[in-house]
Specification:
The structure holds 2 protein chains of 2 kinds. Chain A is of the alpha/beta class. Chain A has helices spanning 2-20, 42-53, 69-79, 93-98, 106-111, 122-126, 150-155, 167-177, 195-207, 218-232, 245-253, 267-273, 310-321, 323-326, 350-359, 372-388, 393-410; strands at 28-34, 57-63, 85-89, 129-130, 133-134, 137-142, 145-149, 185-188, 257-262, 278-281, 294-295, 297-302, 335-336, 363-364. In chain A, helix 9 packs across helix 16 (372-388), helix 10 crosses helix 16 and helix 16 (372-388) runs antiparallel to helix 17 (393-410). Chain B is mainly alpha-helical. Classes of the chains: A alpha/beta, B mainly alpha. The A-B interface holds A 70-71, 74, 77-80, 95-96, 99-101, 180, 183, 185, 192-195, 237-242, 251, 254, 256, 306, 373-374, 377, 381, 384-385, 388, 390 and B 44-46, 48-49, 129, 133-136, 154, 156-159, 162, 241-248, 261-265.
Amino acid sequence: MKRRTFCTLATAGSASLALGARPARAATTVSLWHIFGYSTEPGLINIARFNQTRTDVQIDGKSVPFGQLSQQLVKAVATGDVPDLITIDNPTVASFAGQGVLEEVGARVAASKGLAKSRFFPGSWATTILQGKQFAVPGEVNTLMFYVNQDMLRAGGVDLGKPPQTWAELTATAAKLADSAKGKYGIGVSAIQTEEGTFQWLPFLQQSGAGLKTLTSPDAVAALQLWVDWVQKGYASRDILVKRQSEMTDAWLAGNSAMSLSGPWELPRILRDVKFNWTVIPMPVREGKNIHATALGGYVWAIPKGAKNIDAAFQVIEYMLAPEQAARSFAGGRLPAVQDVQPPADLPRAEVYAGFESQLQYARPRGPSPEWPRISEALQRAIQQAITGQQPAQQALATAEATIAPLLQRYPIEGM
Amino acid sequence: MSRDRFLDSPTIWGLLIGAAALFLLLLVGYPIAYNLVMSVQEVTLGNLPSFSRPWVGLQNYRQLLADPLFLLVAKNTLVFTVANVAAQFVLGLGLALYFQLSFPASSFLRGLVLVGWMLPPLVIGAVWKWLLGSDSGFVNYALQSLGLISGKIYWLADPSLSLLAVTIANIWFGVPFNMILLAAGLAGIPADIYEAAALDGAGPVRRFIWITLPLLRPTIYALLSLTTVYTMRAFDLIYTMTHGGPLDSSNIFPVWSYRMSFELFDFGGGAAIATAIFALVLVVALAYVRSVNAEHPM
C-alpha cells in the first residue's frame, strides 16, 4: 500500500514536471488566485501560454470559486500570506481598497502602453477607482439580459418578431405564459438575500428614473412594485426569494420559466444543455422614461498589499488584457473589459455574445463605495420585505433609505 | 528503570499531560483567545494582519445586542437547536431499538441509514433545496399526490416556514449519528439483566423504562451534549438552502457570524457572535463533564 502510494506520487510528480516543461531557472513566480474553475477556461489557456512564452516570469495559478474570493482574500490578509495577483468581484474593490488592502496601481497603468483608459468600458473602469485613485484593472465583465424560451413564447401566442421592450410589455408577456398551478412561470429573476439579488434589481431601479438617493420616490416604489406584482400575480415563482441566478437558469433550462434574467456566464452550459429554441433580449425600459440600464458584473485584476512580485504581477495583467488574450474571454462565457475586441466569428451563437456586448454600453457599476456591502444588504432586505408582503414597497424602501442615506453621505457615489 | 516502570512513573504522566495540554493550547486555545481579542477591538481589513488594533471594549457586544436582528437570530438558534436535539434523539433511539431486532438484512439496512451522515452538508443542503422546492420539488409533489395539500407549500420562500425546512433537513442529517451512538450504548447492556427482569415478570415497556434508559444514561448525556454542539455550529446546510433568508427567517448565529465577517467585513461583530456561540457551547460542555463526573466519581 505504502509502496503503491509512493509510486503514484512519483508518477504524478514526473508527469507534472513533463507537462510544466518549465525552464531550468524561472526567475520570478507570480502567485495568482483566479476564478477559472473549469479545465476548458480560456483564462487557463492564457496562463499556460504566458508560461510557455516567458522564461523570466512564471504564473503559479490557484483557482478559487467566484463566491469565495472575498473570503479567501480576507483570510490571506489575516495571515499575511497574500498572492501577488488576484481576480476579485468588481463591487468589492472599494471595500478592499478603502481599508488599505490593495496596492495602488494608477501610476503603473498610466505608464503602460497597453492599458489606455480609452480601451475600457467606462462603467467597468469606474469600479477600479476610489476617491481618485486606481486600485485595480478591469479584467472581464458581464451584464444581464433576458434569456427567452422561444418555443414557450410561440405556444403562448407571442409574436417572436416583437419581443417585449418595456416594463408593461414584459409584464404582459409574462402574464400570458404563466400557469403557476402547473409550475410554469412567465418570468424569472433572483430576489435572494445576497449580492445577487441587488445585482438583478438595481437596473430596474435605474430604469425607473430613480436612484439610491431617491429610494422613496414614486419611481423607486414602482420599480419594486413591478417585482412584487410578478410574484403576487403568479407570473414569477415565490421561490425567487431563495434561488440564486444559476438556479433560476436551471428552471429556465427545464422549461419552467419562459424568460429568465441572467448573464453570459451561463452560455457555455446553455449551449450544451438547452433543448428548445431560444434567444436573448435586452432588459426593458420603463414607459415614458426610456432609460436603458443594466447590471455590470465581472472581475478585476488587483494586487494585494504585501505582494512580493508587484512588477511581474503587473506584467501578467498587461498580458491578459492584450487583444489576443482578451478575445478568448467570449469562449468562457465572459466579455472582455476592453472595447476593441469583437467576439470571434466562429463562436457558436455569436449573435448572442454580440447582444451581450452591445448591452455593456448601458451597464452601470454598483458603487464604487467602501460601504457597498451594507448598501446592498439594505436593498436586499427591502426587496424581500416587499415580495413577502411583510411591508408595502413604499415602507420597505423608506427603511432601506434610512440605512443608505448616511452611508452615501460619508462616501458619495457619482451617478447613483 | 525497566520499560514498564518507566511507563508507570510520574515522569511519563508529566510528558503525556504536557503533550495534551500543548496540543489543546495551540490548536484550541489560540483560536479562542484570538477570537476573544478580536471581539473587543475594532477590526478592519487594514489592521487584520497585526494585533495592534484600536481597543473598543464591549462596543461590539453592545452593537450586537442593539442590532434589530439579534432577537430574531437568537430565537431562531434556540428553536433550531432544541428541535434538532429532541427530534434527532427520539428518532435515533427509535431506529436504534428497531435495528436491534433481528430480521433479514437488518444490519445492511442499518448501514444504509448511515449514508446520510457520510454526505457533506453542502450536498445535503442542495438535495433538500431541490426536494423542498415549491414548484417542482418532490415533497410538494408527494403531498399533493396523496391529497394532503391542495395548493403549494412554500417551504423555503415563506419566512414562517423556512426555519422549519432547514430544521427538517438538519434532523435528517443528524439522526444516523444519534442512532449509531445509541445502538452502541444498547449493545453494551448485558443481555442477562433483561433475562432476569423478564423472569421477574417485567414486560417490554417496563424493561425499557427501568433497565434500558437508566443503563443508557451516560450515552444519552454524551449524545445530547454532542448533538447540541453540532447543531449550534450548523452552517453549510443553511447557507446552501436559504443563505439564512428570506429576511433572516432561517438565520442562526453561525450563519450570521459568517455574513458579518465575510460579507460585511465587520470582523469585530463577527468575532463577538462567535464568542457568544462559544460561551453557549462551553456551558453545554461543562454540563456534560459534570454529569459524567457525577456518574463516575473519581
